[in-house]
Structures
1.
Amino acid sequence: MDEIYVIGHKNPDTDSICSAIVYANLKGYIPVRQGELNKETAFALDYFKVPAPQILESGEGKKLVCVDHNEASQMIENWDNAEIIEVIDHHKINFNYGTPIYFHSEPIGCTGTIIAKQNLEAVKANPVLAGLLLSAILSDTVIFKSPTATEEDKAIATELAKVAGIEDMIAFGIELKTKNADVNGRSIEEIIASDFKDFDFNGKKIGIGQIEVVESAEIESKAKGIIDSLQSLKQSGYEAVFFMATDIMKEGTKLFFVGDPEVVEKAFGVKPENNAIYLPGVMSRKKQIVPNLEKAFG
C-alpha cells in the first residue's frame, strides 16, 4: 500500500500542523509539514508531548491529503505531480483538480473543528489528540474573538478541553497565543514571514502576513522597518504586500502595506497614512481582509 501524507499549507500555523497530526493518526497516514514551526505551535506540541512532523519538500509522486488549505499558491512544491486524494479546509474555495476527490469544506473557525466533528468518539478517547485539536481551535479563532468563530467551534472546544484535562481553556488559549506574540529576538523579516500567505486576486500576486500581539506598541515602533521589508518583498514579484498587526486584547488591526493606496482605500474605506491604516474590530485575514482586497483588485 502506498504511503499517504497529510500536509498543511506553507508557513504552517497551529491548525495546519495539529490537524495534520491528528488526521494522520486517525487514518494511519503520515503527518508532514512544509515549513518551520512558529513559537505557538511548538508550545502546543511540547505541552502535549508530541513530536513535530517531518518536513516534506516536494509532492512529486506522493499521495496527499491537504488540510487547512486548497489554493495552489499555498500547496507544496510539485503538488501538480502528486495525487491529491482528499482536502479538508475552512477557507474560501479556489481549487481545481482533474479527477473526483473527497473535498470537505465548512464555513467554520478551524479545520480542527471539522476533524473533531468527523471523528468525535475517536478523538474523545485520546486526550493528546483532543488537546492538539483544542489548541488548533483556540489559535485559529483567536480564543473565539475572531468573526470566523462559530458556536460549533466553542461547543467542540469545550468537549475537547474536558478530555484533554484543560480546566480553563480561555487561560490556556491566552498562554498559547502569547507565545507567538513575543517578538523579542526576532527580525522584522522573521515576524512577517511567520504567518504569510500568497493569494491570486484576478491574476495579481498578493502577499498577506499577520501577527497577533497582546501589546501593539513594539510593532508600532518597528513601522519603518516593516514597510521597508514589505517593499523588498514586493520587488520579488508581488503586485502588493500587506502585513496585519492584530492586537487580540484591543481587538483591532494595524494594516501595513506597499502597493496602490487607492486600492486600500477602496477595500476598507479608510485613507492610508504612511503606508498604513487602523481597522478597529478586524481580527481575521480570511474573513475581513482577503474578501475586501480580492474585490478591490478585481
2.
Amino acid sequence: MTTPHISAEPGQIAPLVLMPGDPKRAARIAEQHLDGAELVSDVRGIGCWTGTYRGTPMSVMASGMGIPSISIYATELFRFYDVRRIVRVGTCGGMADAVAVGDTIVATAAHTNASLSTLLVPGVSLSWAASYPLLRGAMDAAAARGTGGVHAGPVYCSDHFYLARPDLTQGLVKLGTLGVEMESAGLYACAAAEGGEALTVLTVSDHLFDASRDMSAAERETLFATSVEIAAAALLA
C-alpha cells in the first residue's frame, strides 16, 4: 500500500533509511553515496531513493523541517514500510564552546520545548533518547576514522526557529547540550512509539555565539560527507 505522503510500493524502501531534512541534500546523498539509486517516491517534492551502500539495501528520504514533518514520514516508514532503522543526517547550530563549525554531533538525546514532551505521557516531561545500537555503531565508526571533530551528547530540538531566549540557551549549555536543531525529538519519539530505532548525526553549520563562522547555504548542502559516512556505518552496525 501507499500512504498519503509516500507513493512507494511495498518493498521499494529499504529497512535502513538515511533522512536529511532538505530534499536537495537527499538527492545529493543518493547520488554520491548509494549504488544504483532509484527514485521510488516524490510526493510533494519529498524524494525517496533506494539503492545499496556497501552491498546492503539502503534508502535516502527527506523529512522536511520541524517535528510535525519528520513525525509524519518517520511514522509512515516504520508503520507501513517495515523500516527498522532511521538515521537523521542534518545540520545544527553549535551551542557548546568545544563544538566548532564543521564538526559532527552524534545526538545521544533530544531535549525539546515541543508539546510531544508531555503529549504521549501526560504529566511527564520527556527527553527523547537515541537507540543504543545505532549510537554505538556511530561512535565506533567515528573512532575508526580517527580524525576528531566528532562529539556525542544531547541536543536541543526547538519548535521555534527564531525564538530568542538567551536564558534558555545558557541553561542548556551548562547542562551539556551541544547544539540546537528542529527534528530529532520527533524522530526519536516516533521510533519509541513504533518499535523502531533512530539516531541523529549532525553537521554543525553555524554557532550561536560566533556568527562569523557560519556556513553559507551552498556549504550546508555539500559539506556533510563525514556525517553521512558515520550515519551509514551506524545503520549497518
3.
Amino acid sequence: MRFFQIKKRICLGLAFLLAATSLSAFAFAARADRDLPIYCVGREDNVVSLSFDAAWGNEDTQQLIDILAKYNIKATFFAVGEWVDKYPESVKALHDAGHEVMNHSNTHPHFTQLSPTQMAAEVNACADKIEAITGVRPDLFRPPYGDYNDSVVSTMRDEGFYTIQWDVDSLDWKNPGSDAIVKRVLEKTKSGSIILFHNAAEQTPAALPAVIEGLIARGFSFAPISELIYRDNYYMDHTGMQVKE
C-alpha cells in the first residue's frame, strides 16, 4: 500500500511539473516571433486612445479640436511632413490645445519599399518640422498605409520611435455614414485600444461626439497614446498587444 502511495505522489509531482512546463511554453509561444508595432496595450483600467491621421486635407481640424475640448479629451494626431508644411497653424493649434502631434513620415511613402537610410530620412525630416513648430520632438511613428515589416519596426526603434498601429479602425475614410462609424467603434473597442480616425474624413466630426459619449457610457476614459503605452519592461504578444512584464 505504501509503495502505491509513493508512486501516486511521484505521478502527481510529474503532472504538476508538466503542467507548469506547458504553461511556460504557452506564455513563451504567445510572444511575437516578429518585430511588431503596437496595435493595442494590455490594460485593465478601461483607458483608450483616440488617434487621427493628418495626411491630406485640413477641412475639419479645428472642428475636431473643438469637439475634443468639449469632452476634455487629449488625442494623438499623426501628421505627414508635407501636411505640416501646408498647415503649420493647425499643427500649432493642435499642440496649443494639448494634443500630441506625432510622426506619419515626411512624404507618405510605403516604408516597406524603402531602405533603412531612406526610412530614417523620412521620419527625421518630419520630426524636424513638427519640433520647429511645437518645440516637442515626436517619438511615436505611424507607418503610412499601415505598411510595415520587421525592418521598419527595428529601424524606427533605432531612430528613437515607437511604431504605432491601431486595433480599432473606424473606416471613416470610406464614408459609411456617421451611425456606422459609431457602431463599429463602440463594438470593437476594449481596454487599451488605439482607435483610428482621419482628420479630413467627411463624416468624422458628426460621428465623434456619439463615439465619445458611447465609450464614456461604457466606462472608458481617454489618454493620448504616449500615456497609454508602456515605455519599458514589456513584450509584444503575437497579436500586436503590448504586455507589461
